[in-house]
Amino acid sequence: MARLNPATAAGEPQNGVPEKVARVAYTLLWGFARIFSILALAVTWEVLARSGTFTPFQLPALSAVLDRILSDAIDGDLWINTALTLYRALVAFAICAVGGVLIGMAMSRNVFAHWFFDPIVSVGFPMPKIAFLPVVILWLGVYDVSKITIIVIDAIFPVIAATVIAIQGVERELIWSARNMGATNRELLYQIILPAASPQIMTGLQVALPLSLIVAVVAEMLMGGYGLGGAMMTASRFANSTSVFAGILEIAVVGYVLVKAMSLIRRRLLIWHQEAHAPSTA
Amino acid sequence: MKQSLLRYLPLLLLAIAWEIVARFELVSTSALPPLTEVISAGVAMVKDGELISNGASSLYRAGAGLALAILIGGTVGIAMAWWKPVNVLVAPIVEIFYPLPKSALIPVTVIWLGFGDGSKILLIFLGCMLPVTIGAFNGARSSEQVLVWSARSMGASRLRMLWDVVVPSAMPELLNGVRTALALSFILLVSSELIVAQKGFGYLIGFTGANGNYDAMYAVVLTVAFLGFAADRIYLQITRRALAWRD
Predict the structure, then answer these.
(1) A158 FRET partner, CA 20 to 30 A, in A81, A117, A212, B158?
(2) Do A119 and B8 touch (CB under 8 A)?
(3) Which CATH code fits B56-242?
């Protein structure tokens, strides 16, 4: 079973190899293995595209795509489009985060709020809410407001659901002891319930963030205009497949950076929680 | 019965509010046609077969893409947990592609496979595969060491162990990943059909909306939303039954 972890593998030098050398070699080898398949993928792409197996329309060479990204970056289009997409996705995400946590909190503390929102969440969460995009366009037009609205409609449900489940899961003993020590309702909420529920709320936010980006791209594709999705759609109408592939790479980088940033923030915010000391799996 | 009526009362109230707002024309009827007219438009579309034929092609696309994603994604995930070299090679690729908003692939799948079924199936397959892979990987990796050891001491071969111990213990998390994939498949289906298609639910929504036939558009939107909801509920029932062997 290949389940030794790196520390013990390097920590048991064999044949008298000094531990330090073994560890350096292991790190180097591991680092190389991590980038090897990505490099291989990039090389395969370039070779396949140049070999003429595919037409440049089907698969433009990686070098041509990178060149296009560079020229977009120089003439500023890249930054405008990225900033607009990020603006829409992040404003909507912020609304989802604040609104979703507030609704979730209201649902767990207020009987009426629970009665009203519970069926809406349980029916609305699994629905493909993106189908409402044409309705939202009909109501709000094709500008930022309607894009942000459809993102909020799609991404708020995971936050609400996570908040409700998280607050339900707070240990009774914690609440009882706080009450015993004379905590008021407000203190109980801010000092006990919210901190104890925060890991699961963060998980909900970590679902909502990539979802916001997915919906932002779809909304831009359908409504056109500036933004990474809109730019890709324009390029695809003009059969400009180099720009389409450039768009995918740009969106991929944005998505990667956002997801990584979110898990860094999680680690920072929850540094007091025991999960920060557990070995990470992500 | 009475309990579930009380539970879903808020939805009923919303529906009544919709009808009242539309009937008294508090907003323009083209923006919000009365619910009763939406329903009758839906019934008419079912009768002339438009909704059924478009729905069938949508469900075919979603089903085929999802089936491929579960089959290949699940296999890759379990292989990653079982053979270290596979993990070393595949994990970085998964890590890079997982955060990619899959809707960005819509134009590329169209460039590769055109406007028909193929491009949608490819998109849904690519979009839904990674949640299944990650679920299978996490599940298989956490299979209990004690079970693995006892299977081995009882003389199970490596393949037998894979099939009898690792795959079943990967099941709960794998099925959880499939649930995420199911929701994603509907999102990707509708968005790709809204953007480029010649049939399907998304196409029908765009077509009726562009013709100003808003009753019908609302009817299709509600149908898709309901199907997504129903699929999730049915799936939950099935998994609950399939996992009944876990205490």
Answers:
(1) A81
(2) yes
(3) 1.10.3720.10
